[in-house]
Structures are given as C-alpha cells and as structure tokens.
Automatic annotation (TrEMBL):
Keyword presence, DNA-binding: yes
Organism per entry: Flavobacterium psychrotolerans
PANTHER family: ACREF/ENVCD OPERON REPRESSOR-RELATED, ACREF_ENVCD OPERON REPRESSOR-RELATED
DNA-binding region per UniProt: 22-41
HTH tetR-type domain ranges (all copies): 1-59
Gene3D superfamilies: Tetracycline Repressor, domain 2
Recorded superkingdom: Bacteria
GO molecular function: DNA binding
Record-annotated membrane-spanning stretches: none
The protein, known as: TetR/AcrR family transcriptional regulator
Any one Pfam family match given in the protein's UniProt record, by short name: TetR_N
Length: 198
C-alpha cells in the first residue's frame, strides 16, 4: 500500500504541483481514508520527500538509458530534453518552482543530490562532444558545466509555468551548444532543432 500511495502522490504532485495537492486529494483519488495514508506518512512533507526521491531515481535511470544508446553528444542532449518533456508533459504548474517556494528544505536536499549527478552527465557529454569533433577543444569543461548547470537550475527554480520552463530549457540547450560547437557541431545542432517540437 505504501508504494501505491507514493505512486499516486507522485503522479498528482507532478501534474498539479506539490502545494496544490492535499492528503485529502490523494485519499480521494485512491478511494482510501486519509488515516491509511497517515499510517505510512505522518505528514505531507515526508510523503513529498519520498516522492522526490522516486522521481530523482527515475530521471537518472532514464538519462543512463539514453547515454547507453551512444548517440552523438548533441543528439544525446536533445534526447534527454525530450525525456524531460515526456516525463513532465501534464500540468501547468512547475513542480520544481512549487517545491522551492513552499518546501525549501526538501528543495535544497533535492538540489544537493542533483548537483553531482547532473554535473557528471554534463561533463561526460562535453568530453564526448570534443572527441567527436562537435565541440571545440579549447573550452574549459569545468566552466561550461557550471554555466549550463546554473542556467538549467535557475530556470527550474524560478519559473512557475511548466510550459515556459520547457521552452526556456530548450533555448538554454541551444545557447549552451552554440557556445561550444565547431562548424560540424552547428550543423548537427540545426538538424536537432529542426526535429524537436516544443
């Protein structure tokens, strides 16, 4: 039952936002009593903390699956962006924005978990792109990882609309790629932009 509650809560939080969904809403959706939820989670914050952990794991498993497909570096970034688009395709409220605004302690824990994993993915991607001749050899990998990380997490933490966040993330990816790309990389970027629908 605990897993079912987490699954339903995750679904509702991502669709409607962490603040908007109440314990009553989850109980009602599951046709169970609120008492049953409180048997496993003594408050909403603990339930949110567990759901964000599940989402974190799901995101990074999906990223690992994409990386394992051995796309070129630019295509890989666009595939990851598509995955995020699919994963958060419902709802207008940005989950990250609501989490930061209403549950800052949980947001900070989520962000500290994300920093190392995301930075490792960004670094690996840049190294791959340089090897493939898509990114310039003379760039400072650490600096560009920092730039991209700051851009993406600033968008997620400060944009209340999920649709607006997606649009800005795609623009950030284009900006990031153009800053690093060789002429060969620009051709690949244009090809990916052509096939990517917002």
């Amino acid at each position: 039952m605990k897993d079912k509650i987490i699954a339903k809560a995750t679904d509702l939080f991502l669709k409607l936002g962490f603040k908007s969904v109440t314990m009553d809403d989850i109980a009602c959706e599951m046709c169970i009593s609120k008492k049953t939820i409180y048997k496993y989670f003594c408050n909403k914050e603990i339930l949110i903390a567990e759901t964000t952990e599940i989402v974190h794991k799901a995101i990074h498993q999906s990223i690992d699956t994409i990386v394992a497909k051995n796309h070129n570096a630019i295509e890989e970034n666009f595939e990851i962006r598509k995955m995020f688009k699919e994963m958060f395709k419902t709802g207008e409220a940005s989950p990250a924005y609501q989490l930061r605004k209403h549950y800052p302690e949980i947001y900070d824990k989520v962000m500290s978990r994300e920093i190392n994993e995301c930075n490792a993915v960004f670094k690996q991607n840049i190294e791959k792109g340089i090897e493939q001749g898509l990114y310039r050899k003379d760039i400072s990998i650490v600096t560009y990882v920092g730039f991209y990380y700051t851009l993406i997490f600033s968008i997620n933490g400060n944009t209340s609309s999920e649709n607006k966040a997606k649009e800005l993330e795609l623009q950030a990816l284009e900006y990031h790629t153009r800053a690093m790309a060789t002429p060969k990389g620009i051709i690949e970027l244009e090809k990916q932009l052509l096939h990517f629908n917002i």
